[in-house]
Amino acid sequence: MEQILSDRRLRDSVALVTGGGRGIGRAISEALAAAGARLAVADIDVVAAQEVADELPNGSISVQMDVSRPVSVQEGVERTVERLGRIDILVNNAGITRDGLLMRMSEDDWDAVLDINLKGVFNCCKAAVRPMIKARRGRIISISSVVGTNGNPGQANYAASKAGILGLTRSLARELAGRNITVNAVAPGFIATEMTDKLPEGARQAMLSQVPLGRPGTPQDVARAVVFLASEDASYITGQVLAVNGGMAM
Ligand code: NAP
């Protein structure tokens, strides 16, 4: 009988995870490593990235990278290829929030969120696609959000950036399919991390009341979806958005 899901599915793969130093990115790095991949844990905070890399089992490295700066991204990708030989999987996870109602949102808050959350994905895809095209294989997975499709008061900048990721994902899926590179997004709902710890208790409870499964998601819930999309088991899936939200949006 054909084996449906392979064990150690990512053996011999190299994955670069942005914002891998904590939160969801850290869980994604750990899950990809547990599935057999060697990791380049990329983060603007290289100390956090190094701590994660040190705990991973199989010769993983840390990379200092500010995703909003093309030069920093290019250097990080080059370092990864130099040290680990290639990049098979790119996970665009780095993201920030700068919340505020539109009337009070500064141009700086708009620009910072768009520069990191959306232009950062563009920068990383552009740099990582070159070695993937050479190898004629690749997986790109970007972390969007339920807010990208549903919107959220006080998050116009964040919602626009996360919606932008979906258009970028679908366009790249079409551009790169012929090179055997799949491009997908994961859209988490309400996940317990430092990002959501910052929310006032009232806002947390309001979010939770919208989750049919009745609990916040964990970073590992998101990480398992990423491992699936990164694996051979997902080789016929491209241009899709996988929601990991406990039923918050259907
Ligand atoms: P987090 O705990 O704030 O972690 C984000 C990581 O990205 C941090 O390590 C951060 O470094 C790093 N980072 C920030 N700016 C960067 C830059 N310019 N270049 C490289 N790395 C940078 O966030 P999280 O909750 O794990 O979220 C991860 C992703 O999931 C984000 O894209 C977020 O929008 C998305 N998401 C989260 C939720 C949720 O409920 N938590 C829901 C939907 C989507 P520093 O520590 O130095 O800032």
Please explain how this structure is put together.
This protein has nine helices and seven strands. With 250 residues, the chain is of the alpha/beta class. It has a single domain, classed as 3-Layer(aba) Sandwich (Rossmann fold), CATH 3.40.50.720. Strand 1, helix 1 and strand 2 form a beta-alpha-beta unit. Helix 3 runs parallel beside helix 4 and helix 4 runs parallel beside helix 6. The longest helix has 29 residues. NADP nicotinamide-adenine-dinucleotide phosphate binds next to helix 1 and helix 7.
Show the helix and strand layout.
Layout: E1 14-18, H1 23-34, E2 38-43, H2 46-55, E3 61-64, H3 70-84, E4 89-92, H4 107-135, E5 138-143, H5 146-150, H6 156-176, E6 181-188, H7 194-197, H8 201-208, H9 219-230, E7 241-244
Parallel strand pairs: 1-2, 1-4, 2-3, 4-5, 5-6, 6-7
Helix pairs in contact: 1-9, 3-4, 4-6
Which class in CATH terms?
Alpha Beta
Distance between the termini: 34 Å
* CATH homologous superfamily annotation: NAD(P)-binding Rossmann-like Domain
Q: List low-pLDDT spans.
A: none
Under the CATH scheme, the architecture is 3-Layer(aba) Sandwich
In brief, what are we looking at here?
The chain is 46% helix and 15% strand. The chain is of the alpha/beta class and 250 residues long. It has a single domain, classed as Rossmann fold.
Features:
250 residues; 7-stranded parallel beta sheet; 9 helices; Rossmann fold; 7 strands; alpha/beta
